[in-house]
Structure formats: structure tokens, C-alpha cells
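User: Reviewer 2 asked us to show a designed sequence for the structure in our supplementary figure. I'm pasting the C-alpha cells here. Could you produce the per-position amino acids so we can include them in the response letter?
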């Protein structure tokens, strides 16, 4: 049976129930109460040993609030890794600051230490570091470089919630951490986000900033719920096999551009002076409720994902003849990867995807943008990641034979 590259973490029943509630119980769209926020914030702190949590509608909103509250002078230099969502760059530009990109490395897809050292010499104000795919880098070295340079470190843990370095959760190493609870994430709350920080007084300032946000737009949140439900249904094994895959096959056959558009990036980069109003709407009751429910499932989800990924790695090693997981022997001791996505190198993305699609495996490269490329800056390793790494569909209950076919095709296209 055909399989897709990913799936929604909610059960279909949960999304159907929330869709019904969105019609018959409009109170779920109200701004989350102080009590609800406090309860969820405490739950996040207790689960990950964070000290202070502030809830936001989006990660981009959280990033904006942090940059605003640290009172940077105009035209400050903000370091960031290039593979992330476009709105992060929009926030930097809208606040009158200058982005400076730091290239990545291709073991854990995080920051390249040599390039970071070089860019820190320019005396930037802060560094937004986006972890990718659930892989854990040598965070100790990164934090030391930033601390020595007196640069504020903001960890974007949206792909890496639950990941550990030496038994300590990512998000607890920098000055701030941001998590986005958007669709397909391990903790998907119909969007919603949070900031973790050790600084209690700063957390109070962020809380004060959020208190000025508008009430949530019920139409916007209802649309997110409907979209999540639709994707949840379409990515289920039976609907995908008997309806979605045949439809995609026809679209691909007659209109390749439309095929790529359907499966491509949803969040684009737009150079704007004024950010959209919805960035500054408070988190809603349904988003808080859903984030809390998904947190309860996180440990089981991650454990299952790790086991499935290790199965994939063993099959891949057998077929390709080399290790597929960085720091594999130390994985559980130091680098606790959570494999939000499992990525592998291919020589020709177009050819490999086509060969896989013909046997019923739909996959592709990351839909995150290479923001450096968008503004005309060459980042060699980021370009390689964007152009030569594809996702292995790590599906629940998939048979080893499927992965054997996947890697056999991969091996042929590498020659």
C-alpha cells in the first residue's frame, strides 16, 4: 500500500470532536483564561524542568516579543541559521534589525561551529538557532561560544521538543527557547507556542506584552482545525492509498507544477515593514487544551518514533553499507535524538523522488525555506540540505520490506 512522508499526531477522533466543537461550542475560541494559562505553563515547566513559561499564538510572535523586550538598538545584527520559517526573517526586518546567516553542518543539521565563531566576531546582539528534525548537536560547544561572546542565545526547539543532551532537555541551554505547536509537530495544538526562560522578571515582561494582544479570531482558529482534520484524514493509510495517492499520481502526470505546489511549502517569506495583525492575537482556550492533551502523549510518541527510526537505520545500513544516525553508539547516552524527521542524502532529489513515487512512497525535501538563498546569500551546507536530503517516511507499523525497497532505490540513484 502507498505511504506518505508523514502524519498528523492527533487521532482522527480528536480532530472530528474539535471540529464539531468549533461549530457548536464557540467558547473554545475565547482567549485562554489566566487559570488555564497558569495550569499549562506549570505542566510544561514540570515536564521539561523549565523555570518560566509564557504562552503565545505563534513562534514568530514569541520571537518578536523577545527581540522587542531585550531593547536592542535599531540596526542590530541578529544571527540565525538559514533553514527555518520565513516569518522569523520578517520579524527581524520589521523591527529594523539586520539578519546575518550562519551555515549548518550535515551530521545533526545544526549550526556549523567554525562559521559560528567567524560570525560571532562581528559582535551580533543575539542568535536564533533552529534545531532541525529532532537531531541533537554538540550544544555545549555552541552555548560556550555564545556565552564567551556575550550573545543572547534563542533556541528554536519546534522540531526538538523532548530531545536531550546529556540528559538535559534542549531549550534549557540558551537564554530563551521557543516552541511552535503547529501542524505535524510532536505537540500539535492547532498552532500556539511558548517561550521558556530562566529569567523570571523577563517572563513577567513577556506576560505583560501578551496581555496587550487582541482576542483570538474564531474564524482563523476554526480554519486551522478544519485544515488539520482534512490532512489527518488524507494522510491516514487507507484514504492515502486508495484516494490521495491515485489523485496525486494523476496530478503529477498532467501538471507537475501543481503537484509540487500541493506538497510544497505553505509558509513563505514576505519582506514586509508591518507584520500581520494575527501575529498579535492571544492564545485561545482550545489551543491551550490541545497542547496539554498532546503533552500527555509525548513520551509514548517519542519512544515509538525512536524505535521505528532505529529499525529504519538498521535496514538502511544493511542496504547502503554505512551508518545513518550520527553519534549512533552514543545516541542514548549523550545525544538523545527524537527523529521528528529521518533524513538521508540523495544524489538527485528529482530522480529519487520520482522513482520512490512510482512504487507508492511519497516523500520530499524539507518544506522549510533556505532564507539565506531567498535574500541572495550562499550558504553551502544549507543548500546541500535543501537540495540533497529527503525524508524517510517513518510510519507506524510499517514493514521492513518497505524500507528495504526505499533504500534499494536510493542506492540505485546514488550510482
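Assistant: Here is a per-position design you can include in the supplement:
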Amino acid at each position: 500500500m502507498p505511504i506518505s512522508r508523514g502524519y498528523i499526531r492527533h487521532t482522527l477522533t480528536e480532530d472530528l470532536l474539535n471540529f464539531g466543537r468549533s461549530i457548536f461550542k464557540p467558547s473554545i475560541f475565547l482567549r485562554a483564561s489566566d487559570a488555564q494559562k497558569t495550569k499549562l505553563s506549570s505542566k510544561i515547566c514540570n515536564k521539561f524542568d523549565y523555570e518560566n513559561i509564557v504562552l503565545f499564538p505563534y513562534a514568530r510572535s514569541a520571537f518578536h516579543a523577545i527581540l522587542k523586550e531585550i531593547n536592542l538598538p535599531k540596526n542590530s545584527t541578529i544571527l540565525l541559521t538559514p533553514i527555518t520559517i520565513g516569518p522569523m526573517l520578517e520579524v527581524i526586518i520589521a523591527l529594523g534589525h539586520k539578519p546575518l546567516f550562519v551555515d549548518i553542518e550535515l551530521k545533526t543539521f545544526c549550526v556549523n561551529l567554525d562559521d559560528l565563531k567567524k560570525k560571532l566576531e562581528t559582535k551580533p546582539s543575539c542568535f536564533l538557532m533552529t534545531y532541525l528534525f529532532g537531531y541533537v548537536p554538540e550544544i555545549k560547544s555552541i552555548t560556550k561560544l555564545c556565552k564567551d561572546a556575550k550573545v543572547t542565545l534563542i533556541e528554536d526547539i519546534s522540531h526538538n521538543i523532548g530531545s536531550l543532551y546529556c540528559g538535559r532537555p534542549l531549550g534549557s541551554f540558551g537564554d530563551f527557547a521557543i516552541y511552535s505547536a503547529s501542524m505535524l509537530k510532536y505537540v500539535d495544538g492547532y498552532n500556539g507556542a511558548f517561550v521558556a526562560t530562566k529569567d523570571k522578571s523577563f517572563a513577567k515582561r513577556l506576560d505583560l506584552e501578551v496581555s496587550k494582544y487582541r482576542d483570538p479570531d474564531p474564524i482563523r482558529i476554526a480554519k486551522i482545525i478544519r485544515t488539520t482534520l482534512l490532512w489527518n484524514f488524507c494522510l491516514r493509510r487507507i484514504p492515502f492509498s486508495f484516494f490521495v495517492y491515485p489523485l496525486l499520481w494523476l496530478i503529477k502526470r498532467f501538471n507537475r507544477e501543481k503537484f509540487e505546489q500541493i506538497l510544497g511549502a505553505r509558509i513563505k517569506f514576505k519582506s514586509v515593514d508591518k507584520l500581520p495583525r494575527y501575529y498579535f492575537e492571544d492564545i485561545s482556550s482550545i489551543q491551550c487544551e490541545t497542547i496539554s492533551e498532546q503533552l500527555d502523549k509525548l513520551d509514548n510518541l517519542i519512544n515509538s518514533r525512536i524505535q521505528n527510526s532505529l529499525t529504519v537505520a538498521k535496514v538502511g545500513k544493511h542496504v547502503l553499507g554505512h551508518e545513518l544516525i550520527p553519534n549512533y553508539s552514543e545516541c542514548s547516552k549523550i545525544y538523545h535524538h527524537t527523529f521528528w524527521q529521518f533524513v538521508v542524502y540523495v544524489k538527485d532529489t528529482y530522480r529519487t523522488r520520482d522513482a520512490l513515487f512510482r512504487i507508492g512512497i511519497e516523500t520530499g525535501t524539507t518544506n522549510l525555506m533556505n532564507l539565506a538563498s531567498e535574500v541572495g546569500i550562499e550558504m553551502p551546507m544549507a543548500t546541500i540540505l535543501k537540495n540533497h536530503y529527503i525524508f524517510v517516511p517513518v510510519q507506524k507499523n510499517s514493514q521492513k520490506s518497505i524500507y528495504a525497497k526505499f533504500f534499494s532505490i536510493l542506492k540505485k540513484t546514488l550510482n
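For the response letter, you might also mention the following. The first helix runs from residue 12 to 24. The mean pLDDT is 93.
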